[in-house]
């Protein structure tokens, strides 16, 4: 989901996390003495690691740093808990795959940027705005959806606190922020509305 907030775009994405035990190519499990990774990754693979009580678990800044260390040290007694991608990136061999305690392990990332970047597959847009308290203001604004052939799926109004007879409108419509028709409609809406905000394109 992407949300516009004070000229910034805040994006949320959830990525599956799958840990592996990686070491130098040719490393045998019986050679391992020390395992490096981010503290959270070591905890997320604790069931597997606890089966090897002879291994010393050492936390580092992140899983990529752990993989880099194994490559740099060239020490067969060391291994890293990292992703299969990190293992490939640093020329390591996956010694044991899928060592997560939870098979559905995932992490949520929040990305903040001042660039207008929207997901290509997003197909619904939510906006909110206020209007001048005058006859025909809502009619004129809604005409931008008609002229640009955009399907509005919801409109709601809420009173604005402390301002009698003034309302904030919430509208959902189908489209993507990369489409010319949507860009044209948003441009027209900004001219008609007060405090228009794009709440999300998802």
In short:
The chain has about 200 residues and is an alpha+beta fold.
Description of the molecule:
By secondary structure, the protein is of the alpha+beta class. It folds into 2 domains: 2-10 and 118-201, Alpha-Beta Plaits (2-Layer Sandwich), CATH 3.30.70; 18-104, D-Maltodextrin-Binding Protein, domain 2. 25% of the residues lie in helices and 37% in strands. The protein is built from 6 helices and 12 strands. The chain has helices at residues 39-44, 46-49, 63-73, 84-89, 137-147, 180-192; strands at residues 2-5, 8-16, 20-23, 34-38, 56-60, 78-82, 93-96, 106-113, 124-130, 152-159, 167-174, 194-201. The strands form 3 sheets. Strands 5-4-6-3-7 form a 5-stranded mixed β-sheet. Strands 10-11-9-12 form a 4-stranded antiparallel β-sheet, covered by helices on one side. Strands 1-2-8 form a 3-stranded antiparallel β-sheet, with no helix packed on it. Helix 5 runs antiparallel to helix 6 (180-192). The model has no long low-confidence stretch (mean pLDDT 88).
């Amino acid at each position: 989901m992407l949300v516009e907030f004070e000229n910034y775009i805040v994006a949320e994405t959830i990525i599956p996390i799958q840990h592996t035990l990686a070491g130098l190519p040719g490393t045998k499990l019986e050679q391992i003495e020390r395992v490096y990774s981010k503290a959270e990754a070591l905890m997320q693979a604790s069931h597997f690691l606890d089966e090897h009580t002879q291994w010393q678990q050492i936390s580092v800044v992140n899983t990529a740093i752990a993989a880099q260390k194994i490559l740099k040290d060239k020490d067969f007694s060391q291994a890293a808990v990292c992703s299969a991608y990190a293992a490939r990136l640093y020329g390591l061999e996956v010694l044991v795959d899928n060592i997560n305690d939870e098979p559905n392990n995932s992490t949520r990332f929040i990305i903040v940027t001042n660039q207008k970047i929207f997901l290509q597959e997003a197909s619904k847009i939510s906006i909110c705005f206020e209007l001048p308290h005058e006859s025909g203001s809502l009619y004129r604004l809604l005409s931008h959806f008609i002229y640009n052939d955009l399907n509005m799926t919801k409109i709601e109004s809420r009173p604005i606190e402390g301002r009698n007879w003034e309302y904030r409108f919430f509208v959902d419509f189908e489209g993507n922020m990369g489409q010319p028709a949507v860009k044209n409609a948003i441009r027209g809406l900004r001219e008609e509305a007060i405090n228009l905000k794009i709440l999300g394109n998802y």
